[in-house]
C-alpha cells in the first residue's frame, strides 16, 4: 500500500491535481453555507420554535460522526467516486450504484434549490423581472464557467467561500450587538425581549416532537454539502491534510456559525413571525437600524447561493463520471479513451488489493489528468434547466419541496456511509492503510446508525415527514431495482 501511494504521488497526472489543502479547507467551510443555511434555518425555527436547538444538536452529532467516517475512508482510499466507491467495495456493487445515483439525484435537486434561492433574491430587488429568466441566466453562466475554467475551480471556490464566511461573521457581530443592546437598554421599539422570544409564544417547544421532527429535515439539509469535500479529496495534493482540515472546519462551523446563528435568531425574533419564516437573516439585520446592511447581506447571500450551485455542478459531474467509469452509467459520458476501459475492480478495491494496473488506468482518466469531464458537466447543466421550469410553474412552493426531499436523501446516504466504514475499517487496519482513524471505534458507528433510525422514526410522527420518508424510500428501492434489471439484461446479453 505504501509503495503504491508513492507511485501515485510521483506520477505526472498526480502532479496536475488542482486542489491544495487550503482549497479543501475553505471548501469545507463554504460549500454547505448556501440555501440550506440561509433559507432553511428560519424555516426550521418557524416549524419547531426555540426547540429547533434540539434538532441542531441531534443533526450536529450525526453529521460530525459521518464526516469522521468519511475522513478515515477518503484519506486512506481517495477516489472520485468517494462514498459510492466505498459502498461498492464494502457492501456490494448494488450499494455503490444505489448511493451514487441517489446522491447524484439529490445534487440535481440541490442545484434547483440554489438556483431558486438566488433567483428569489434577485427578483426581490427587481420585481419586474420574471423569476424563471434569472434562474435561466444563472444556469447558463455558471454552467459555462464550469466548462471553461475547471482548472481554476478550486481557487475560485475557495475565495467565494471566504465571502460566505465574512458574511456569517458579519451577521454574528450584528446579532451579538443587538442582544447586548437589548440586555443593557431594553428591547428595540416594536420588538420583544429575549426571554419573551424564547419562552413566550406557547413555550420553548410549541409544536412538540412533531415540530422538532419536521425541523430536522431542514436542519439536515443545512448540513448537507460537506460530502463534496471527500469527492474533491481525490484531486487534492495531500488528502490526509485536506481531510484533517475539513474535520476541524466542520466542528468550527457547527459550533460558531450554525449554533451561534440559531441562538441569535431565536433570541431576537419570535419563532412564529412572518419575518422568521420568509427571511430571518435579513430581518435581524434590519433591526440594527441600517437598512443598507440588510441589502448588502442579501447580495452576499445571492453570491453564496450561486457559488453553492457551482459546487453542485462540480460534485454531480464528478459523481456521474465516476459511476460511468465503473460501468454503472452511460459510457458516452467518459471523455478520455483510456477511461473507457471497463475496470475489473473499483478503484478502492484495487487500492486494497494493491492492483497497480487498475490504479494506473484510473490515473489516465480525464479527472486525474486535470481535465474537465465536459460531457458530464453538460448533462448536469441540461438537467439544471429543469429548475428553471420549476421556477416558472411553481415559484412559491418549489423551495419547500426541495428542502424536504434533500433532507431525506441525506439520511439514506449517511446510513450507507456508516455501514461502508464498518465493513472496510477492519481491512484498512489489517493492511496498515489507516491514515485518519475515526474516534470511538467500534461503538460510535453503531450509535450513529441508531441515531439515524431514531430520526426516521421521528419523521413518522408528522404528516410531512412521513410523506417524505415514504417517497425517498420508494426512490431508493427504484434505484436498487434499476441496478438488478441492468445486471439481468447485461447477463443475458453476454450469453
Structure, described:
With 495 residues, the protein is an all-alpha fold. The protein is built from 22 helices and no strands. The longest helix has 35 residues, at 291-325. Mean pLDDT is 76; it is low at 1-16, 337-346 and 355-364.
Explain briefly what this protein structure is.
With 495 residues, the protein is an all-alpha fold.
* Overall 3D shape: globular
Tell me the helix content: over 70%
Mean pLDDT: 76
Structural class: mainly alpha
**Termini, distance in Å?**
37 Å
Unreliable stretches, pLDDT < 50, 5 or more residues?
Answer: 1-16, 337-346, 355-364
- Figure out the total of helices: 22
Strand content: under 5%
Please supply descriptive tags for the structure shown above:
globular; mainly alpha; single chain; 495 residues; 22 helices; disordered N terminus; Amino acid/polyamine transporter I
SSE arrangement:
Blueprint: H1 2-10, H2 12-15, H3 21-30, H4 35-38, H5 40-48, H6 52-76, H7 82-90, H8 93-125, H9 131-148, H10 153-184, H11 194-199, H12 208-223, H13 227-233, H14 239-268, H15 274-286, H16 291-325, H17 347-353, H18 356-363, H19 374-393, H20 398-431, H21 443-459, H22 463-493
Helix pairs in contact: 3-10, 3-14, 5-12, 5-15, 6-12, 6-13, 6-14, 6-20, 6-21, 7-8, 7-20, 8-9, 8-16, 8-19, 8-20, 8-22, 9-16, 9-19, 10-14, 10-16, 12-20, 15-16, 16-19, 20-21, 20-22
Amino acid at each position: 500500500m505504501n509503495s503504491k501511494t508513492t507511485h501515485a504521488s510521483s506520477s505526472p497526472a498526480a502532479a496536475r491535481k488542482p486542489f491544495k489543502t487550503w482549497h479543501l479547507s475553505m471548501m469545507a467551510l463554504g460549500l454547505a453555507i448556501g440555501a440550506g443555511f440561509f433559507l432553511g434555518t428560519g424555516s426550521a425555527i418557524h416549524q419547531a420554535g426555540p426547540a429547533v436547538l434540539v434538532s441542531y444538536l441531534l443533526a450536529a452529532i450525526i453529521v460530525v460522526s459521518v464526516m469522521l467516517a468519511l475522513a478515515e475512508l477518503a484519506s486512506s482510499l481517495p477516489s472520485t467516486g468517494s462514498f459510492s466507491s466505498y459502498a461498492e467495495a464494502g457492501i456490494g456493487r448494488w450499494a455503490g450504484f444505489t448511493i451514487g445515483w441517489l446522491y447524484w439525484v439529490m445534487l440535481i435537486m440541490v442545484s434547483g434549490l440554489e438556483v431558486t434561492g438566488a433567483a428569489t433574491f434577485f427578483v426581490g430587488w427587481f420585481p419586474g423581472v420574471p423569476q424563471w429568466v434569472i434562474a435561466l441566466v444563472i444556469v447558463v453562466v455558471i454552467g459555462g464557467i464550469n466548462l471553461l475554467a475547471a482548472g481554476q475551480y478550486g481557487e475560485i471556490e475557495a475565495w467565494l467561500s471566504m465571502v460566505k464566511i465574512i458574511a456569517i461573521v458579519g451577521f454574528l457581530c450584528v446579532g451579538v450587538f443587538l442582544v447586548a443592546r437589548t440586555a443593557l437598554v431594553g428591547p428595540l421599539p416594536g420588538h420583544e425581549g429575549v426571554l419573551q422570544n424564547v419562552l413566550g409564544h406557547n413555550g420553548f417547544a410549541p409544536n412538540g416532537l412533531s415540530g422538532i421532527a419536521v425541523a430536522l429535515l431542514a436542519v439536515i439539509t443545512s448540513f448537507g454539502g460537506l460530502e463534496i469535500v471527500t469527492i474533491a479529496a481525490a484531486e487534492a495534493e495531500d488528502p490526509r491534510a485536506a481531510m484533517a482540515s475539513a474535520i476541524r472546519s466542520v466542528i468550527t462551523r457547527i459550533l460558531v456559525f450554525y449554533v451561534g446563528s440559531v441562538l441569535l435568531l431565536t433570541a431576537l425574533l419570535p419563532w412564529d413571525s412572518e419575518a422568521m419564516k420568509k427571511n430571518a437573516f435579513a430581518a435581524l439585520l434590519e433591526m440594527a437600524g441600517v437598512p443598507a446592511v440588510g441589502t448588502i447581506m442579501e447580495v452576499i447571500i445571492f453570491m453564496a447561493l450561486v457559488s453553492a450551485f457551482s459546487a453542485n455542478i462540480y460534485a454531480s459531474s464528478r459523481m456521474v463520471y465516476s459511476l460511468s467509469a465503473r460501468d454503472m452509467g452511460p459510457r458516452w459520458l467518459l471523455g478520455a479513451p483510456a477511461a473507457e476501459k471497463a475496470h475489473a475492480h473499483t478503484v478502492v478495491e484495487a487500492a486494497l488489493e494493491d492492483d497497480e494496473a487498475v490504479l494506473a488506468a484510473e490515473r489516465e482518466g480525464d479527472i486525474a489528468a486535470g481535465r474537465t469531464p465536459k460531457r458530464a458537466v453538460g448533462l448536469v447543466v441540461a438537467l439544471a434547466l429543469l429548475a428553471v421550469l420549476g421556477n416558472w410553474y411553481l415559484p412559491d412552493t418549489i423551495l419547500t419541496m426541495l428542502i424536504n426531499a434533500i433532507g431525506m436523501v441525506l439520511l439514506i446516504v449517511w446510513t450507507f456511509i456508516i455501514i461502508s466504514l464498518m465493513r472496510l475499517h477492519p481491512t484498512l487496519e489489517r493492511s496498515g492503510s489507516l491514515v485518519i482513524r475515526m474516534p470511538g471505534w467500534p461503538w460510535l458507528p453503531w450509535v450513529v446508525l441508531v441515531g439515524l433510525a431514531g430520526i426516521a422514526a421521528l419523521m413518522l410522527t408528522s404528516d410531512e415527514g412521513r410523506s417524505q420518508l415514504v417517497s425517498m424510500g420508494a426512490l431508493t428501492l427504484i434505484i436498487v431495482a434499476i441496478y438488478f434489471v441492468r445486471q439481468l439484461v447485461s447477463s443475458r446479453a453476454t450469453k
